[in-house]
Amino acid sequence: MINIQISTNAAASRPALDVVRTLLHEYIHADMYRKLNTEDQVQTNDFLNFKETYDSYKNGNFKADSQHETMADLYIDEMTKTLKNFHKYILVEDYNFLTNNGAIPIPDSFYEGLAWRGLTEEGEVVDAYNQLSDEKKTELQKSLSFYYPSTTTNCPENN
Question: Could you tell me the residue ranges of all domains in the chain?
Answer without folding.
Answer: 15-150
